[in-house]
Amino acid sequence: MQLITVGTVAFDRIETPFGVAEKTVGGAATYISLAASVFLDKMGLVSVVGDDFPEPVMQQLRDRGVDLGGLEVLKGKESFFWAGRYHYDMNSRDTLETRLNVLLELDPKLPEAYRKAPYVMLGNLDPTVQGKVLDQMEQRPALVAMDTMNFWMDSALEKLKEVIARVDILTINDAEARQLSGEHSLVKAAGKILAMGPKYLVVKKGEHGALLFGQGRVFFAPALPLEDVIDPTGAGDTFAGGFIGYLARTQDHSFDNLKRAIIVGSAMASFTCEKFGIERLAEVSREDIDQRIQQFVELVDFDIELVES
Amino acid sequence: MQLITVGTVAFDRIETPFGVAEKTVGGAATYISLAASVFLDKMGLVSVVGDDFPEPVMQQLRDRGVDLGGLEVLKGKESFFWAGRYHYDMNSRDTLETRLNVLLELDPKLPEAYRKAPYVMLGNLDPTVQGKVLDQMEQRPALVAMDTMNFWMDSALEKLKEVIARVDILTINDAEARQLSGEHSLVKAAGKILAMGPKYLVVKKGEHGALLFGQGRVFFAPALPLEDVIDPTGAGDTFAGGFIGYLARTQDHSFDNLKRAIIVGSAMASFTCEKFGIERLAEVSREDIDQRIQQFVELVDFDIELVES
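^ inputs. structure came back:
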């Protein structure tokens, strides 16, 4: 196993000003694994679904190198379901419904082959579950990245902080960075959050890009301006999957390589926004990604010679 | 004259979560002229003030190469006054009070020496006044840039569009680009706005940076993540002043040079945010600016080699 991912595998109902997807496959671990599979051959997935989850999607994951030995299938039960509606700006959304279903019973047991994985991605989930995954690793992984959200800051802050202290990289959005630190300035927020344990902090800003903080340095990657944003659901998870997949492939944890991983993750996230659910991500080729990375290079490239006084 | 600027010269009362400035010098033309003066020796300013406007500030402008022959001083009248309050996020604000005062009488008459200026910056102001400035130019300037805001889209859209059709570069924020075009996607919005006449569109996104569209290309510049944002008032005008000042100095209107001008403008705007009013901008040296531009280079710099499949 090169990477194991824990997170939701789910159904989503998504409303946007431009359309509705009634029941589409989603979940953090689904997006993360699909994105990481572009760079890796052998991944593990830790989650739980009901027996309503479609076998073709599971086969699609297996075909892309995702082992499902860690995916529990509960007979006669329903998979986690989330329904949300995006506002006109497509950058904010309301949750309309959450049916936890099988998620209530998620008590992860890692298959033997998962316990020595060098890379671990803790997708957004109850921090208690994230902690249990780390507890079962036989040795400290080479790199642990963690995603979370404001819900856990509101409901399980102490447990959340315990897990944050055990990871190398935390990814959250700008509002969450402000909430977690109590600082409005993202520079100050990053300082406080890095003091909680992680070596690096990635602040995701949706259509406004992402910031990487760590080692006293800061890097900014824009989001690609898109002609059409159809559905941003899973963009953050796709970002995380491309990011950790690239790191696991290159096995280089320097700041400069993390910058590259951010660009790769941003490029992949831009694809996810172009269609509903996992549809666009599942069809993306390495050539598509290379082309999009080139667009990022051009988007921010400038050379400047200062004018003499 | 290398550059002439029309815009407000005013007093501001500014409330932020971190403090209050009761009566500080502001106004679009003030910020634009101060910022541009870093690159230029001979500028003109077209505006109107009351005799309450402080002579030391006028002298400060003259000392920096800003000719005030176009600044009418109305005896016994009060200068334009604006009061605003910033929200906790410092990215949005409410206008608490606007006293137009002398601004109601602004009927610009350009001094002879202004009428052949190669660079013109139309600061945010009634589009009728912006148009009158263009009408008085003896020849088509080499470059005309224009700033405006949603207020004029709501109250004087047809007149605004007439002026937009006459300029080379339009600078507005992202909400305004969406309003003016009726398109949510900034890529589509840019297409529609460029079809109205300008060769280039600069979309200002405050703490989220700026986008440049034109010639079928797009460029993104981040805002520098600041430890403390004290007062963003005038940041957009400082950006515009640094931008047009750099262009007037280099006299190169290529897309690549506009990218540099965007970086210069962004660097200068970051200083304005560090203190109330014009205080920080007025003390900035060329060395400060060079150093900050270097921070922008480092902020977005990455090199990427794609991983072989």
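The first helix of chain B runs from residue 28 to 36. Chain B touches chain A through 47 residues (CB under 8 Å).
thumbs up if we can close this ticket
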